[in-house]
Q: What sequence folds into this?
DNA sequence: ATCGGTATCGATAACGTTTTCGAGTCACTC
DNA sequence: GAGTGACTCGAAAACGTTATCGATACCGAT
């Protein structure tokens, strides 16, 4: 900036005023300075700017890692931010495996006082919101709490999945649930039980087990379920990862999907369409969730009065991993 | 930070030393300060930190938008950054459509003096590298120039695609090329011509036309090609978007793919597996490109001597959009 | 000739850090 | 008991920007 000032023959203060379009600079000076800025390719330093003015027109989206789930959200957010006058900054603390819990608090502390005007946090655990700074949570571990939240209807989606299996004639339906500390996992299990109850089908507790939402842990659970003497004819997995893992295990045990076993997942990650057979699953509108979260954040900053909890509908996506019983 | 200093009964200078593990602080003091830091949940402000020290342990990845191409790169980069001691910050200028060219220069200027220690830039056009600051380009418009670069073997991939169509017996093969200002598009066309020449098949210039890599423009080109009296029996599209667009146009003209027309794409974006029929295409290892770019950047910063141009192999992915001629 | 008002600009403090360097304390040595 | 060195700590400057406020110049009016 001082380069620009020197070249244009003015002070840095004047350059700053020109950059920010403040009143009190002669028209001729404005043009001259802008010319020099253009020539030198000057661009304000984000760091210094925010340090002083606490306003950057940059919104943050904080994720533990850039995996399929969060990158889909990112796409949606990116589409929404275009033309809003904001820029988007995605930040990952990069501690592999999200090993260090509390990443969301630390990242937020690092970026909030400075750098960004507001943030979308993906699947946060604990969240104490510093006041005067706006935060939107997407799919938080604990379900909608005090924070403005965007999530999808996990309960209804689980009912959808279970009813689909029931409609195919399955009665002996197993469930591989997610991590018990996650609200979404609890809701999916609850939806499963509700649908079973409504259909007057008793749930056999021996075929409802924790799979933990991860490939390896789900594989263990699937193997246990499938080696029972009266194994389930269909399995509702808590997420697509678990479902895919279940199909692998089934194959390795000599079972073919969907002939010997129907499997349905949850999430509709891109991979679910690529596996063999393509996975029937419940879609969460991830991109739309990202877009809604960003819109909500922008509105909050602008002071718009609105509903601060958005729940988006889930949908059944029928592919080829389920088949009528018998 | 001054809060921490006051609570711990020391000066901010001492706190800074503790945070950065500098020598010259008594063991007892270190422990007391760390205790207070933990209690107050203090985290250094990225902005102020970089402003002063020009070292943040944060690497940037600059993209025009978060679309499938760049988010795949991002996944790869994210995996690579884990455990490296760096954090990852993805930045998008957010001018929809990349309308404003020069976004890469402006974003870089905004973040480089401060905030990030180095950057990966995705599909940049012009790039003047400020010295003392490390930049890696992924798939640059102009091909490998002075900058350290990661790209995939577009030429060999195009040869692969063309040879596949030839091996199916097609002779009348059309090509919908990309934007002429992109090196990758030029290389793909060149590969196409090379393969045709090697097979002693003449290229009919009327069925080689610019499609521009975008859905709408490619649709126009496809429509023109397919309404020729002697339309091609197979089309090699410059990228998957163009290929998908071509299939749509073919369908709307009453042609079925692959029976009446074979189509092959390039990129292997996730969407290509989801369309009907699933698209046969050439895979670029996007995630691996992201990972390689990040590794290269880290090495450059560390001063490791190494090759600064990485070209990754492409691969044929056979799905269902091509069929033998006759 | 003086004054008030307006338009324009620049000096300067502040934002939250890091780094340098000098000052203070203490134990030891001669 | 004074000098020496090692160890610990804090004052202050600097990074690049923005906001405040006072300085200057010029104009027209009294």
A:
């Amino acid at each position: 900036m001082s380069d620009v000032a020197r070249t244009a023959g003015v002070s840095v203060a004047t350059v700053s005023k020109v950059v920010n379009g403040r009143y009190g600079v002669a028209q001729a000076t404005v043009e001259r300075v802008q010319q020099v800025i253009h020539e030198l390719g000057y661009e304000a330093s984000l760091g210094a700017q925010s340090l002083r003015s606490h306003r950057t027109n940059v919104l943050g989206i904080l994720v533990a890692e850039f995996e399929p789930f969060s990158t889909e959200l990112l796409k949606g957010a990116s589409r929404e931010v275009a033309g809003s006058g904001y820029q988007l900054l995605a930040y990952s603390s990069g501690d592999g495996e999200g090993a260090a819990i509390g990443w969301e608090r630390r990242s937020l502390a690092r970026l909030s006082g400075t750098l960004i005007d507001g943030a979308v946090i993906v699947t946060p655990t604990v969240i104490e919101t510093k006041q005067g700074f706006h935060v939107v949570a997407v799919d938080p571990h604990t379900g909608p709490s005090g924070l403005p939240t965007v999530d999808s209807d996990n309960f209804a989606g689980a009912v959808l999945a279970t009813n689909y299996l029931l409609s195919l004639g399955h009665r002996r339906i197993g469930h591989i649930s997610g991590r018990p500390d996650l609200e979404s996992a609890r809701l999916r299990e609850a939806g499963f039980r509700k649908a079973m109850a409504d259909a007057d089908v008793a749930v056999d507790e021996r075929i409802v087990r924790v799979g933990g939402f991860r490939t390896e842990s789900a594989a263990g659970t699937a193997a246990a379920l499938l080696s029972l003497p009266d194994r389930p004819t269909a399995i509702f997995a808590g997420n697509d990862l678990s479902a895919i893992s279940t199909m692998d295990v089934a194959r390795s045990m000599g079972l073919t999907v969907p002939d010997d076993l129907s499997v349905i997942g949850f999430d509709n990650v891109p991979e679910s369409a690529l596996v063999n057979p393509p996975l029937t699953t419940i879609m969460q509108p991830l991109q739309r969730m990202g877009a809604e979260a960003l819109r909500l954040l922008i509105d909050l900053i602008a002071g718009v009065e609105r509903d601060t909890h958005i729940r988006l509908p889930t949908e059944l996506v029928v592919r080829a991993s389920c088949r009528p019983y018998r």
In short: The domain at 54-151+286-310 of chain B is CATH 3.40.50.2300 (Rossmann fold). The mean pLDDT of chain B is 91.
